[in-house]
Structures are given as structure tokens and as C-alpha cells.
Amino acid sequence: MEKAREMLRLTREQSDAVSRLQSVPSLRPGDTSSFYEHFILIGIRVDRVQPGFVSCSFKVPSRLADRSGKLANGAIANLVDEVGGAVIHEEGLPMNVSVDMSISFLSTARVGDELEITSRLLGRKGGYSGTIVLLKNKATGELIAEGRHSLFGRHNSKM
């Protein structure tokens, strides 16, 4: 435990540098995304949007890799969360809240691999929505992960 604590201990200079961080660059004008969202989504390219469907391309960056150079499972979970939420988002309304995610990790992707990430609305009942998110290797067609994502949002009527 002490060894881990020592590894994570920051120097005074490192601590000061972190304290000076105020914000992250905006992804688009008026953007209010968090550092967390910016960190996971930088580099994603939206290829196609239709009602109930979103398709994106994403080249695996080294910042999202584990020690062996593979896309980290946590990064996959974040992509399922973000792209799964995007397929049901309505402009001008608050984002829905994730209620449940179930992810099957079927293969791996390495740094530099180009992924196709698709999200499809499975259904909606009241404020509850279900989506499915697939991450595939573009070059091989191999399925990397399949995520089922449930979200909830109660929005006021526009009438």
C-alpha cells in the first residue's frame, strides 16, 4: 500500500500545475463539455446521423490505451456511454441520465486502429430509452465490443 501511495504522490510543482488548469478547449462554439468528455471524445468523427442512428469513426489514440497498447475497457465503456447517449439526445434539452450499461468485450483494438462506432435506438417508452452501441475494427470488420445502454430523461413538453 505504501508503495502505491508513493507512486501516486505529486511533487509541489506537479500539484501547482494541476491547480492552474482552468478549462479545456471547446469542441465547438458554446460548448460546455467537461474535461472528461473532451478527453474521451477528442478525435471522434461523426460520419452519419439519422433519426435513431449515429455512425462515427475513431482512431484509437495512445491516451486511451492500457499498458499493453490496447484500447482500455474503461475507454470502451465511456464511448458506449457517450455515443449511446448521443443517439437519443435532442438539441436544446438536457442530456439523459445513464441508468444501466451492459458491455460485452469481444476482442481488442490497438493504438492506431480505426474503429467504426454505431449507435442505434432500440426503443423508447416514456422517459426511458434503450440503445445498442457496436464498436468494430474498420479494417477487419471484427466486433470489438457490444454495449446495451439504458437512459432516462424527463423533459417538459414543448407544447
Overview of the structural elements:
By secondary structure, the protein is α+β, with helices and mostly antiparallel strands. It has helices at residues 2-8, 12-19, 35-41, 73-86, and strands at 45-50, 53-59, 97-105, 114-125, 128-137, 143-152. The chain has a 6-stranded antiparallel β-sheet with strand order 1-2-4-5-6-3, with helices on one face. The longest helix has 14 residues, at 73-86. The chain is globular and about 50 Å long. The mean pLDDT is 82.
List keywords for this structure.
159 residues, alpha+beta, 4 helices, 6 strands
Question: What is the structure about, briefly put?
Answer:
The chain is an alpha+beta fold and 159 residues long. The protein has 4 helices and 6 strands.
Multimeric state = single chain
- Tell me, rounded to a whole number, the average pLDDT: 82
Approximately how much helix is present in the residues? 10-25%
Helix/strand order = HHHEEHEEEE
Q: Identify the overall geometry.
A: globular
Total beta strand runs? 6
Count of helix runs = 4
Order the strands across the largest sheet as they lie in space.
Answer: 1-2-4-5-6-3
